[in-house]
Amino acid sequence: MKFIAVILYKFAIKQNNLHQQRKIILISLITGILLMAAKFTAYFLTQSNFILTDAAESIVNVLASGFAFFSIYLAERPKDSNHPYGHGKVEFFSVFVEGVLITIAGIAIITKAGYGIFHPNEIHNILLGASIIGVTGLINGLLGWYLIKKGKILNSITLDADGRHLITDMVTSAGLVVGLALIFFTKITALDNILSILVGGFIIFTGYKLTRKAIGGLMDEADFKIVDHVISVLNDKRKEEWIDVHNLRAQKYGNELHIDCHITLPNYFDLNRVHQEVHLVDVLINDHVSIKTELFIHSDPCVPACCHYCSMPNCPIRSEAKTKDIEWTMDNVTRNKKHFE
């Protein structure tokens, strides 16, 4: 009965997290549409390519938020025969699309600004345009900070990526305001296109980082920060019965973690005791690692060569006394061999 209650509790938490993610992304989408309209208004008032860089990027914000909303909807679908690990990896694809769109926007901005160097146009209402961009940048910064904070709490790469994109947009907007002020006071209109090219380069770099992160997730690249945290928990809470843990591999699927590992147990334990120890490892990880984790644990029997680092008291089959303690580290826990090999 207690096991069923725990399962229902975890399911309720997951559903609540997904509901919060959908609500937050919807707020981001609506805000993005309103700010995009404001930025394009500033562009039409000023005819500044520099302002157009921010307006063009806002289109990406809206498209990315819309796709993120869809990806979170898809990620919450339960596991099925075609997707035995769930649909969480769609979040990485969402981040990939966002990164590609940002990169395309950066290339378009540089192309437009490069054309403007040879075919300059007159700029109007610079201070009004700077004021509009400054306000939109502040709003994006506050929303981005909120998304990153919630992304960490809810373990959502989509919220985190969207938030970092908005923080980048805020930095871009701040640079825009400074640049527009320089143009206004120096009267050097060529700065409009030169600064646009610099901002476009920064946007392309941001797009590259997001794309790189998404490809790493889609390719099951190891998240060493999460793995190190899991190993730290196992090391701190290890039991005498757990002789060693090895061949540990972790994969992230959306806001869930999947872990495969082997655990060496005394070879005289019966199946009931083995199941109990494996279950305790599962409970330990899910109680202390801040992400819902599914574990597939293979149990290995101990062999005489394990005795010199085994802490099991009153062992009836011990062939030699314990002579050393082996700390579980990234190196020995991730290798596919017992710690004496």
UniProtKB/TrEMBL annotation:
Q: Name one Pfam family in it.
A: Cation_efflux
Keywords attached to this Swiss-Prot or TrEMBL record, sorted alphabetically, are: Membrane, Transmembrane, Transmembrane helix, Transport
Domain Cation efflux protein transmembrane stretches = 25-219
Transmembrane domains' residue ranges: 24-46, 58-75, 95-117, 123-148, 169-188, 194-211
Membrane topology, as annotated:
Multi-pass membrane protein
Chief location category: membrane
Q: Where is the Cation efflux protein cytoplasmic domain?
A: 240-302
SUPFAM superfamilies tied to this protein: Cation efflux protein cytoplasmic domain-like, Cation efflux protein transmembrane domain-like
Q: Tell me which InterPro entries the record gives.
A: Cation_efflux (IPR002524), Cation_efflux_CTD (IPR027470), Cation_efflux_CTD_sf (IPR036837), Cation_efflux_TM (IPR058533), Cation_efflux_TMD_sf (IPR027469), CDF_Transporter (IPR050291)
User: Which one GO biological process term can you cite for this protein?
Assistant: intracellular zinc ion homeostasis
- Under the GO molecular function aspect, what terms does this record hold? cadmium ion transmembrane transporter activity; ferrous iron transmembrane transporter activity; zinc efflux antiporter activity
List the subcellular locations.
Answer: Membrane
Task: Please give an example of a GO cellular component term from this record.
Answer: plasma membrane
- What NCBIfam families is this protein classified in? CDF (TIGR01297)
* Protein family: Belongs to the cation diffusion facilitator (CDF) transporter (TC 2.A.4) family.
Name by which UniProt lists this protein: Cation diffusion facilitator family transporter
